[in-house]
Amino acid sequence: MRFSIVFLALFALAAAIPTTPKLHAADQDILKKQQHVIHLLENIVGELPHQYLYEIGYKYEFEPYLQNYENPSVVKYYLGLVKTGHVQPKGTPFSVSVSQLRKEVALLTQIFLGAKDYETFLNTAAWARVYVNQDQFVKAFSSAVIQRPDTQGVILPPAYEVYPHYFFDTRIIQKVHDYMNQYGYEHHGEGEQHHEHVHHIHVNYTSYLPFGENQIAYFTEDIGLSAYYSYVHLSSYILHHGQQLHGYGQKYPQGGFKGEGEYHHHHGHVGHGAHFYYIHQQLLARYNLERLGQGLEPIRELDNYWEHIETPYKPHLRYLNGVNFPGRDEHHYITPRHHNYELIKLVRALERRIVDAIDLGHVITPQGAFLSLYQPEGLNILGQIIEGTGHSINPRYYGSYQAVAKQLLGNAPEFNNIYEYSPSALELGQTAVRDPIFYQLYSKIIELFHYYQEALPAYQYNDVVVPGVHIEKVQVGDLVTYFSDYEVELDNAVPHPVEHHHQHEHQPFPHVRAHLKRLDHKQYEYTIHVNAEKPVQGAVVRVYVGPKYNYDGQPIDINVHRHYFFELDQFYYDIVEGHNAIVRNSHQATGQSYDWPSVQQIRERVEGAIKSQNPYYITYPQQLFGFPARLSLPKGTKSGFPLQFFVIITAGIHHQPEHYGPVVEENWMTYQPHHYQIVSSEDYEQFAQHPVDKIHGGYQSVDVIPDFDNHVITEGNWHWGYLYKKYPGSYYYPHWQQTHYSYGGEHHYEHHYPEHHEGQYHGEQHVEQHGEHHGEQYHGKHHHAGEQYHGEQYHGQQYHGVHHGYAGEQYHGKTPYHGVEQGKTYHGEQYHGTAHHGHGFEHEHEYYGSGHYPGASEYHGTYPTGTYKGYQGHEEQLQQFYNNEFIGDIIGGAISLDGKPLGYPFDRQLAHSAFYAHNIYLKDVVVYHHDEYFTEY
């Protein structure tokens, strides 16, 4: 009975994206297609077990049906390669690092997409499943299912069940082999007593990870994170259907033509290159929060010359042919005689060209023309040339910096033929995020984007303010992380004999499941209290979470550390005149997704719908391809991991035009009038229309002085520095310290949580209760009772700070909180909330969300439709937004509902004046962690 309830909750997929306007039950056509997808991807390590599809694929002839393809020449060319044996053999590893393999999978994908009708597509897919390399088939087939109009509503099974050996340690896969060899095959088909037999394998292995990385293996080796990134990697090679060279005349599904190519995207800033940047920047920010919370040191920088690789890695993964994934030794030195030395020269050259483009302000087209980087599409263009996967404006000159770097750092061994080939974990989308050097590489790549962003004019007060909108306070419920149980089908880990499957079609093999623990967080709620002088229809609210203190325990500089903030949510809201209480639940977050249903669950639910027992609801792409929702919060601590929420409200699509510079960087600024101006907020608009100095021709930098109530604010900023600090060891604000140090080759860390205390503030300042801030911050002299400091601030030496206490707040470890606890006291003020207990969020080993979307008759214990005032009515607007998005841009979860750059306002520097805007707000929060398993939600 419990399993049935889980099922009903799962396939409604309510909480995944509760803003979907309505439920759409799949018709019989979609149900049959869903079955075909499941059948084609089962037993992927062996032969196709479905007899009907196997016979179609085995006997299919292309010649009589060439007219059924949009590209018959491609079909004939590819078929010739197959017949002459010039394609990759089955059972050998695949990666896009090898040009010939990349070519083959691109051709196969074109053939799949070029099939004019579904029957032709199915026949072609069945043929490829029988004759083509398994990895190439899965990649091309998955790409086609995602893109084809006649497979919309059909979902792919979870990647970790299709190919378990890419997601689970070799020792786990070996246990599956051992069990099936000993018990599986000999008992298969003996009777009904084995029909329900399930063998469980507990997963408690990790890769060999250096420098304390094993402490965050729960994040880097999370199968949901790996599956998420595998589709991000796949989307890199997805082009708009019908796209010609450089994107001119491209078509968008359901959106018609969107202008002349990708550089005229409907939101300007938000093309594929911008998505590449933001998805990786956010992944890196999330990784840094995990490191910070566990007391690890900052990410180690790569050698600037690329010759010394100091990060060892042993993935403990194995390919289908029995070859282990290559590892990497510590202190790996690449000499001129090394087979990878040519890659060093290439990656240096590509990096130099990218830096030159940023410095000069333009990229070079194949025709030798200059294309400016300092324009609305500049970040997008830069991202495309760095990624270099088919979207680049000039791939011959700029190549693929990130791909070459992955080959170099992955340390795959030299090979003479495909049978010796073993690509590194870093080169595969399914395994890349497991390798610690992945984050070192993308830290270096993101620094290139930051270097570009530093040349953009900073956002001033006028650029970010929404006049008349004032965020008064933000209340956040308890943030609690824990490790939840989860089970994964491992049936595809070993090949199943096809003849046994045909003989005992209705008596499947005993199931093998992996039982593992995964980082999760309890549902939480926050309320944003806004006062507005006038209504703002279609306002967009963005919520970020970021660190309160840096790796040295110092309070962060919001501007300098803006790239450490992770986007939690973004949504539409109609602000009314007067007071607005914007209530938001964590399960509503856009850009995030819950777990994929298992193969068994999809199969059983589809079969039930075919028999008209229960409806099978169509799943939308945004419900599957976003960042894993359960990983949206970093792992807390028992004493509490201090973070902060950053909230900003924009006026929808009615925003001020941005300016792109480039400006003179601070190091070379003379602050003479032709370089630098100080203007009032009233004069800024006029200045922004003519920012170029008429005499010297350069773009002028500017600082705005906002005027509030005829009082010019001259003190306060969100900047922390040492220039005017007589004693650098003291801090304006009490800090939370994590000391990281190493000795004897073993990494250690400590958390320092002194007793909570009330900080005593002196001097002119603007500080809200309970560490809540908007406007200027932390100035004057601050004295904190009980503050103490020991030692110097160097890695490896301790210093002890004082943790800022929250008066009246208590956390009881065994109490599962929902929203704001009734009677909780914040500095003497009572906030009364209701504990909402939901069902369907946590059932045994599944985590799927509530039972139905808003609009359904029930909502299983959480909020029914219409509870969130102001949010009501935007479901269709959000769905329309996704309908106009290309699938390649939906994958990854990066969105901009108002056309602002992705990650706004952290996409460029923030001037001091920007923090005076009352539509920006900071809220101190604390994340706790409990390993105890809560049954109620």
UniProtKB/TrEMBL annotation:
Domain of life: Eukaryota
Record's GO cellular component terms: extracellular space
GO function terms (MF aspect): nutrient reservoir activity
One Pfam family here: Hemocyanin_C
Keyword set includes Chloroplast: no
Signal peptide start and end residues: 1-16
SUPFAM superfamilies associated with the record: Di-copper centre-containing domain, E set domains, Hemocyanin, N-terminal domain
Residue ranges constituting the Hemocyanin C-terminal domain according to the UniProt record: 459-654, 883-929
Domain called Hemocyanin middle: residue spans: 158-449
Residues covered by the Hemocyanin N-terminal domain: 31-153
Assigned keywords, A-Z: Signal, Storage protein
Name listed for the protein in its UniProt record: Uncharacterized protein
UniProt source species: Nasonia vitripennis (Parasitic wasp)
